Amino acid sequence: MKTVLITGCSSGYGLETARHFLAQGWNVVATMRTPREDILPRSPALRILPLDVTDVDSIATVLAEAGPIDVLVNNAGIGVAGAFEATPMDHIRKVFETNTFGTMAMCQAVIPQFRARGSGAIVNVTSSVTLVSMPLAAAYTASKQAIEGFTGSLAHELGHFGIRAKLVEPGYAPTTRFTQNSGVRIEDMIPASYAAFAEPIFAAFAKPALVTRESDVAEVVWQAANDSSGRLHFPAGADAVALAERAGGGRR
């Protein structure tokens, strides 16, 4: 049985991805800042471990407890929406610490065991904001675009050792807790001067033509983790697929 370690499993994409890999017969190491034993079905193939991807000691501890893994899924992230002008720089740094540096730190920590074994896969979950420019998401987009470039370059150097690196780009999922873990309220980042600009944007998000489901992302993460071709980009969700096609006929 293969083993996958998934970050950010307390809700949303990470939780559904853990369920999906379990259903496929894999050993799953589901990690989250505050472990909850009740959110996943009990299974001898499941371990739920605490992990803070911004803490080097926490990363080292969880990898020691997990033992050898075959796939790393970097899903942990912080959402942020609002006018860039009104987004505090300390919050932007917090977003980058998790979304960007946390992902990089996890990659750096698992690469040695993958390289020694000559196999393994890293799946980095970004966002459809990397496919087309979207308003009121400047800081979040920057944190995810950094991982897009990082993973593309990483795929070349790791490919030399038989290690695969992939990007999964989910669309808009209204059922996830996108900004609830950010610690900053959206309304506090929409100054009165931006209200007229933001109103129709939020109205459109309230009635999207196409959306992404958690199960869409879980299935595409599974596909990416098992893909042995040179494909790099995997949009996830009907809206993300449509955006990817519009952006370039489906990137690879």
Automatic annotation (TrEMBL):
Keywords: Oxidoreductase. Its EC number is 1.1.-.-. CDD domains: 17beta-HSD-like_SDR_c. InterPro entries: NAD(P)-bd_dom_sf (IPR036291), Sc_DH/Rdtase_CS (IPR020904), SDR_fam (IPR002347), SDR_oxidoreductase (IPR051911). It is an enzyme of class 1 (oxidoreductase). GO terms for molecular function: oxidoreductase activity. Belongs to the short-chain dehydrogenases/reductases (SDR) family. This is SDR family oxidoreductase. It comes from Bosea eneae.
